[in-house]
Amino acid sequence: MPDERTEPFATPADLPATIRVFPLAGAVLLPRQVLPLNIFEPRYVAMTRDAMMGDRLIGIIQPRDDGRGGPPALFETGGLGRITQFSETGDGRFLIALSGLIRFRIVRELAVETPYRQVIADYRAFTADWAEPAPLEPDLRAELERSLRRYLDAQGLSADWEAVRAADDESLVHALTAVCPFDGLERQALLEAPDLPTRAATLSALLSFGGDLPQRAAPGSGRLQ
């Protein structure tokens, strides 16, 4: 059965060199992760419209806080996703879901006439992203769950532990990367981790550190689903 996420791209070599990028602070897109987005700013409405009329590809990348005027500098590494869900609201917004394909490095940014930014992307360092990762070693998975429990206990939060234990390794790492209140540099470190075991170990370390900071949890229901 064709994979809606990657169709019509059979391999990373089929991906375009020029991609649209959406600079979004505090957000990263990992392979096979689904990122819901509410698109309302006119330049990104235009970007989404152009993507839907073309290859449906958008790169998510964090801006650097460099304190300079003009468009912010970008981190070198981002995540390329394909629009797999799309709806238009009555007030001109787009609600989309991006499914992560592969990470990329920026070769250079292009001078373009579009209201959104475009770059030349290099995927060669991340071709392993295209394949499903191997399961984590049991000890590493157990340590990640222990770190999560310590973190939640320190924050006064709870979790659906049956759901946590039932989640596959990559889905759990994706969920924690998305919902835990890490800062931009921490999220970038998770994005740039070379593989799932390294990302899980980094996540475990961040959770262990966060457990020592009582007010780091984001406001909400007090429950991790």
Topology (elements, then pairings):
Blueprint: E1 18-23, E2 34-39, H1 42-53, E3 57-61, E4 77-88, E5 94-109, E6 117-122, H2 138-155, E7 158-159, H3 161-166, H4 169-179, H5 184-192, H6 196-210, E8 223-224
Any idea what the CATH superfamily of the largest domain is called?
A: LON domain-like
Tell me, briefly, the overall form.
globular
Order of helices and strands, N to C?
EEHEEEEHEHHHHE
Strand content: 15-25%
> Count of DSSP helices?
6
Q: Which class of the largest domain in CATH terms?
A: Mainly Beta
CATH architecture of the largest domain: Roll
Name the helicity range. Answer: 25-40%
Radius of gyration: 18 Å
> How many beta strands in the DSSP annotation?
8
Note down, in words, how this protein is organized:
It is a single chain. This protein is of the alpha+beta class and 225 residues long. It has two domains: 12-130, Archaeosine Trna-guanine Transglycosylase, Chain: A, domain 4, CATH 2.30.130.40; 138-224, no CATH class. 32% of the residues lie in helices and 24% in strands. The protein has helices at 42-53, 138-155, 161-166, 169-179, 184-192, 196-210, and strands at residues 18-23, 34-39, 57-61, 77-88, 94-109, 117-122, 158-159, 223-224. The strands form two sheets. Strands 1-3-4-5-6 form a five-stranded mixed β-barrel. The longest helix is centred in the middle third of the chain and has 18 residues, at 138-155. The two termini are 30 Å apart. The model is unreliable at 213-225 (pLDDT under 50).
Structural key phrases:
225 residues; alpha+beta; Archaeosine Trna-guanine Transglycosylase, Chain: A, domain 4; 2 domains; five-stranded mixed β-barrel; two-stranded parallel sheet; 8 strands; 32% helix; 24% strand
